[in-house]
Design brief:
about 140 residues; TetR family transcriptional regulator; mainly alpha; about 0% strand
């Protein structure tokens, strides 16, 4: 008689573990599994072997599958995360494009500075014909 009570208590512990795991998976907050809505993930989340669901607690397995179908096979939080991820990807793409444009501008400005430095040095040494260099007229009075 003691073994029947123990088995019943063990069964209740398993049922509780499975239902808690279902809630976590369906809410998109797994603790012990990959978060997929599969029996394998449910068993891992509950800390049980998969055959406990496929052979012993088939009613809970069927309930889990029904709940998964009811929410289109994906936790609601996963939809929100997917949407947020897409928005972040778009922002990242825009940031990369802006970075590339700025990088090209910096390279162009660096070339301009280099040319100006060379011309300035040539002017200081007198290597450029001063007749080609004209001074800007002063302010008009």
């Amino acid at each position: 008689m003691l073994t029947d009570t123990t088995a019943s208590a063990q069964e209740q512990v398993e049922i509780r573990a499975i239902t808690d795991a279902m809630i976590r998976l369906l809410a998109g907050a797994p603790l012990r599994s990959d978060g997929k809505l599969t029996i394998k993930s449910l068993a891992a989340e509950a800390g049980l072997r998969r055959n406990k669901l496929t052979h012993k607690h088939t009613g809970l397995k069927d309930l889990f599958y029904a709940l998964v179908r009811a929410q289109a096979g994906r936790p609601a939080i996963a939809d929100r995360l997917h949407h947020d991820n897409e928005a972040l990807r778009a922002a990242l793409t825009r940031a990369k494009e802006e970075r590339d444009q700025l990088k090209a501008q910096v390279q162009q400005l660096a070339r301009v500075v280099q040319v100006l430095e060379v011309e300035n040095e040539q002017l200081r040494r007198g290597g450029i014909d001063r007749r080609t260099v004209r001074a800007f007229p002063g302010p008009r009075s």
